[in-house]
Amino acid sequence: MLEMLGMQLFTGLSLGLVFVLLALGLNLILGLMGVVNFVHGAFFMIGAYMTFTLAPKIGFGFAILIGALLVGFIGILIEVPMIRRVYSRIPEYGLLLTFGMTLIIEQLTRIIWGDFPQPISPPSFLAGGINLGFMEFPMYRFFVMLITLVIIGAVWLFLTKTNFGMVIRAGIEDRLMVGALGVNLPLTFTIVYGIGAALGAIAGAIASPLYGVSPSMGGEFIIYAFIVVIVGGIGSFWGSIAGGLLVGIVQSLVVLIWSPAQQMSSFIILALVLLLRPRGLFGVEGALD
C-alpha cells in the first residue's frame, strides 16, 4: 500500500509540474495582456509534434530546444498582426479569436501529421526505472520533474533578477502605469507572448513521451491550464506552481479511491477555490481588474 501511495504521489508530482510549466506561460499572457489565450493549447500540441518530428533526426534534447524556439517565433508571428488587435477590446474578442485560431491550427496539424495519435519513446538513457528505496519509479517521469524544476527556477530568476522581468511583474499589476513611465508596451507584449508560447511548447515536448501526440491533445490540456491559473490566481507565479501541483497530485491520488472521479476532481477544486477565494490562492490585486 505504501509503495502504491508513493507511486501515485510521485506520478501526481510529475503531472502537476507539467501543468505548472504549461500554466506559467498562459498566466504571463493572461496576467499582463488580459488575453484569454485559448491558442496556448495549440502551442503545447505543436511543441509535442516538433519533438515527434525532430527527435529522431537531431536528438531529444535538441528537438525540445529547437521546437521551443520555433513555437516562440510562431507566437510572435501570431501576436503582431492578430492578438495585438484585441488588447483594447473586451475579453470575449480575444477568446473568440484564439479559439478560432486553435481550430485552424488543429486542422493544419491533421493535414500535415494525420488524424491518428502517435506514440513517442523517451530517449534510451531515460528508459527503465530509478530505485527510490521504497519503490521503483519510471526514469522518464523523474527526468520530467527535474527539467521542469530547472525551467521554473530559470523563469523565477528572469522575473525577479532582470529589469525586463520586473517590468513584466509591474505590468501585471498596472500596465497603464508602466506604459505611462515610457516602457514600450507593444514590444514588451510581443516578447512575453513569444516566451509564453515557448513555455507551452516545452511542456508539450516533455509530456509527449508520457501521453503520445495527437491533434486534440492541446484542447485537453488547455482546460487544465486554465483551471491551474484560476485556482492559483491570475498573474501569480507562485499561484501557478501551487495550483499545478494541487491539481496534479489530487488527480493522481483520487485514482486510488475512485478512478472515474480523476478528471472531475479538478473541477471540484476549481469550484471550491472560486467559492472561498474568488481571486485564487495567490491572486494578484489589479490583474484583469
Automatic annotation (TrEMBL):
Annotated protein name in UniProt: Branched-chain amino acid ABC transporter permease
Which organism's genome codes for this protein? Ferviditalea candida
Q: Which domain of life is it from?
A: Bacteria
Report how it sits in the membrane. Multi-pass membrane protein
What PANTHER family does its record include? ABC TRANSPORTER ATP-BINDING PROTEIN, BRANCHED-CHAIN AMINO ACID TRANSPORT SYSTEM PERMEASE PROTEIN LIVH
- Pfam families, A to Z: BPD_transp_2
Annotated membrane-spanning segments are 6-24, 58-81, 93-113, 139-159, 180-206, 221-246, 253-276
Cellular localization per UniProt: Cell membrane
Family per UniProt? Belongs to the binding-protein-dependent transport system permease family. LivHM subfamily.
Q: Which InterPro entries match?
A: ABC_transp_permease, BCAA_transport_permease
Q: Which UniProt keywords apply?
A: Amino-acid transport, Cell membrane, Membrane, Transmembrane, Transmembrane helix, Transport
